[in-house]
Amino acid sequence: MAGGARTQILIAAVLFGTTGTAQAVGPELDPLAVGASRIAVGGALLGLVALVAAATGRLRAGTGGSPLAVLLAGACVAVYQATFFVAVADTGVAVGTVVAIGSGPAFAGLFARSFAGERLTLRWAVATALACAGVVLLVLGGGAGGSVSAPGVGLALISGAGYAGYAVASKRMLDAGGAPEAVMASVFGVGAVLMLPLLAMVPAGGLATPGGLTLVLYLGAIPTALAYVLFARGLERTGASETATLTLAEPLTAAALGVIA
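-> structure tokens emitted (261 positions)
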């Protein structure tokens, strides 16, 4: 069962890894508008998945968390998405993704230990250190493109912390009995509501073009709705810190796609 959970997380991480490249090769749009619209589409699709699961009797009732926990996780999603897309636009797909996701396991371990009482093992520490070193060396040695920008790296670190906070908060809800589909739908629904005002504050006209619609629909359906359902199902049976380490497959995917693209 644990092996199957890890496989689901790895598949989700590979799908996550296509996000930055899709933004880079798509039409030139405001990164905040892309992030907000991605979460809006993804949140709507996750809600639909939860409704279908409930209608077919495959969904447990409840999210397993208090309204405050759902709000916290949703806020972390909003922070993660907004800062990630701006970081990628500023410092490149490979660098932005490596810093954001590469820092995630360290933040997740700290948060899981501090707020969830999760025990951090030597195996986790060694695996995380080696994996982080590996992805950094891969990008720096492979010339995957993108200049290193201090503000971009800072935003990517904030993104990594937001991602870790979302993972730890979601894990607590799943441990409390929440169904993966219900947890993801509620959390991303809150994240979408928090990010929607951004669409009124930034240039968003390009989203209505064929290229813009294609990009947003892809980002909302594949690396959001599908990937996060797989992610939550794997997270349900795996620790938050180990899950964050497994998702280092995301920057590996992003780096490989950065070289190809």
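The two ends are 36 Å apart (CA to CA).
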